[in-house]
Amino acid sequence: xxxLTKRQEEILNLIKSHISDFGFPPTRADIARTxxxxxxxxAEQHLRAIEKKGFISILSGAxxxxxxxxxxxxxxxVIGLVAAGGPILAEENVEKTIPRSxxxxxxxxxxxLRVKGDSMVDVGIFEEDLIGVSKKxxxxxxxxxxxxxxxxxxxxxxxxxNQSKVVLRPENQNYSDxxxxxxxxxxxxxxxxxxxxxxxx
Amino acid sequence: xxxLTKRQEEILNLIKSHISDFGFPPTRADIARTxxxxxxxxAEQHLRAIEKKGFISILSGAxxxxxxxxxxxxxxxVIGLVAAGGPILAEENVEKTIPRSxxxxxxxxxxxLRVKGDSMVDVGIFEEDLIGVSKKxxxxxxxxxxxxxxxxxxxxxxxxxNQSKVVLRPENQNYSDxxxxxxxxxxxxxxxxxxxxxxxx
DNA sequence: CAATATACTGTATATAATTACAGTAATAAT
DNA sequence: ATTATTACTGTAATTATATACAGTATATTG
Lengths: 201, 201
Prior knowledge:
Two copies of one chain form a homodimer.
Chain A: H1 6-22, H2 28-35, H3 40-52, E1 56-58, E2 66-68, H4 70-73, E3 75-79, E4 94-99, E5 111-114, E6 130-134, E7 144-149, E8 152-161, E9 166-169, E10 178-180, E11 187-198
Parallel strand pairs in A: 3-5
Antiparallel strand pairs in A: 1-2, 3-4, 5-6, 6-11, 7-8, 7-11, 8-9, 9-10
Chain A binds a DNA duplex (30 and 30 nucleotides) through residues 5, 7-8, 27-29, 37-42, 44-46, 49, 58, 60-65.
């Protein structure tokens, strides 16, 4: 997707906030009024440019017919079973999506991962729970991370992180620490856990 | 709030599904077309009736200016500290609200309750977690319930439920079962836990 | 029994809104 | 150097939309 100019982004934000304020998109005249344009055609042409770049689509003939593209809806993917090889966010891994909402959870969640197994029960993470994962938050020792060891995805507490040695701890007395030598086994830290959803109790 | 007639409810649902499908409300003509009215005025008059009953408001002069009333937005309240006396859902107890979304959690959640204390850690319910509570689901023994004992709100597993004796179990080895005689202590089962959200890990 | 609410048809009109056409001017890309 | 993009003004026409007015008919309420 191409990038918007400053002005185009301003208009896209105006559309979003109008929808959030009123429940429906603005008209060309609304946009012109808000930004001080003397002609509604200025808004029209901006909208066409934003549409061309794929951020919105415009339903012809319909008043207020501005539809935000899916990428604008900002839905968070839920990752179920991760297929071996390929990126974790690949489409075939996406079980469903959940809308990002202002008052729910931190805004930094990049995806949810459905937990398999009972290796983290001692910190209250159960099988089938959805953990909210942030890719940005750089993993610190002591934090719960999503790691990929030789294409196997796992959730563990990060205990030690060096170039020669990585230690991951299951939070369950029945399991013992996992020691990895990154030069032998392929290891990727996909992100840190920042939230949790249990859909049924 | 007054109750809608069958037809009015049909129209309100049409409005909601139009918003969900297109991102903006329908016009009078849209409504008339969908329901087979031969006059847009039929839609207009239904809208006025629905507005009068408080379910929507109509912005005059604006196209598609149908705004769902707050009650229609279907936000789930988050209950923080519960003030002694009065209903649990009283406004002063509401910390914030969370939009109900199709793909997230069961639709039967009536409110979220912020957990205080560590009495349920063994079933993965931690302090500050939000538990989704359903009032409808009638409490069975073995299920986790929100109970009110003499105006104190607590989350426990329901073990026994008779007219003469109620047993609530904390899921934490450090605590012991609570036995209540409903003829001595005031007891209200507010609902059952059906979901959980942990906003920070 | 009259008044009010429900549930429409049918017509009409003012205004809201999209959208085309004709320009101007500065900047970025090929 | 020319073309495309960005960022607008200004005008105007067509269509989309809200909304008023005049009816008809049935059901419900006071």
